[in-house]
Amino acid sequence: MDGSAGATGPTGAAAESPADSSAGLPTGFPADIHTWSAGRIAASVQAGELRAVDVVRAHLARIERLNPQLEAFRVIRREQALAEASAVDAHAERATLPLAGVPVAIKDNVEVAGEMTGNGSGAGSSEPATVDHPVVVRLRAAGAVVVGVTNVPELCLTPMSDSVHGVPRNPWKLARTPGGSSGGSAAAVAAGLVPLAHGNDGLGSIRIPAACCGLVGIKPGSGVVPPSIDATPVWDGLSDHGPLATTVQDAALCLSVMGADSSLATLDSPERLRVGLSLRQTQVGLPIDRRYTAATTAVSVVLESCGHTVSAHRGRYPSWQGTGALRSWFSFAWSGSRPLEHARLDKRTRRMAAVGRILEALHADGARARAKWRSGAADAFFGDFDVLLLPALAQPAPSSARWGQRGLLRNTYTCLRVASLLSPWNLAGWPAMSVPAGVDEQGMPIGVQLVARPGGERLLLSLAAQLESARPWQRQAPGWD
């Protein structure tokens, strides 16, 4: 699976689709539709300038042509998506649908009616879901069209998205992972297969792939988006649903639909903010790559030029916070694997579950650390700032490989080195997002993280939009036209 090591963008002729979904597109249909923002697509469909069915047909053709290289999708919903798009075109109130005709991808750990929810595993049920997850319900009601289900790592446990269903690759460099656990979704957006994708984030799983793939990804605070069909918190309330997009406005539009709060889509230039620049690691022995600290510092200069006050954040993460996140991670592996046939799980998942079972028996599953951080320690750490600015990743994205069949120690070390800066804000239940901040000398994206207190989703999006205006980024990975 590593035959394309070192390649950037497509490495050869794309696989031919057995049935070309682009057949029948009208004369003059925009050939660059895959570069359009979700907002632009929706406005064109609302006005009747484009038909949703043609927009979806064009995106399906691109998915069918490029997915064999990227392995972003586990399921491509060709016939169902075209039928859904036709229903949007016939909708009596199409002009009011905020995501009219916008193709979206759904992460493979929430229910899509008629599809099996794989959760990256071959050990679960193969029965299709009978109802949609609330997030899918809201996206469909807004006029979005579900074109497919994206690949994730088993039980969505790691920042690498390989599983028995596929090994997603990063469109910026095929030898690298697109991150995880929303890696398939991120790869799909970064390569222009869809303008928007659903993700969720329990210990960084939206922000990690956003940073790996040069995207905007926001994890809202607890309770903004319904966690599950029956409103049961996922991962003890640490996991929240959010969008992956190429622009801040698209992310805001999608989150406004997911959270049923139209005000989130209206962004204003924020007043003068107190921004804390934090360049500390969460735990000793986990260094931050100097390129990422430099990129974060450069963003702080841009924010200062926008009129904000940036000061060094000198707080130190308490040691128990990092170990509590680690213990929580293993305990979630154990709780998530309990109903499954363990013999069919990946090697890594079995080992993680075994550790989690021991931690639970010892009453050392991280619950007390989570409660302590959420009940006041996070607020004390945050200090007097309105927003924290810090690196998203601590180290570059790992290789795209079958990590699930590798050993526990190697996986744990890699995950901690790359993704340790994100978990504090899951434990706190606070909103946080990743925003593009340039590329490194190898042409790979760099992301920075913005964090706010509860209720600060619109503040973060508005600040990110200001940053995007001041220093625009490349919206999609190069070489996929």
UniProtKB/TrEMBL annotation:
Residues 1-19 have a biased composition (Low complexity). It comes from the Bacteria. Pfam families: Amidase. InterPro entries: Amidase, Amidase_dom, AS_sf. Residues 54-310, 376-461 form the Amidase domain. GO terms for molecular function: catalytic activity. Residues 1-26 are annotated as: Disordered. PANTHER family: GLUTAMYL-TRNA(GLN) AMIDOTRANSFERASE SUBUNIT A, MITOCHONDRIAL (PTHR11895:SF7), TRANSAMIDASE (PTHR11895). Belongs to the amidase family. This is Amidase. The lineage of its organism: Bacteria, Bacillati, Actinomycetota, Actinomycetes, Catenulisporales.
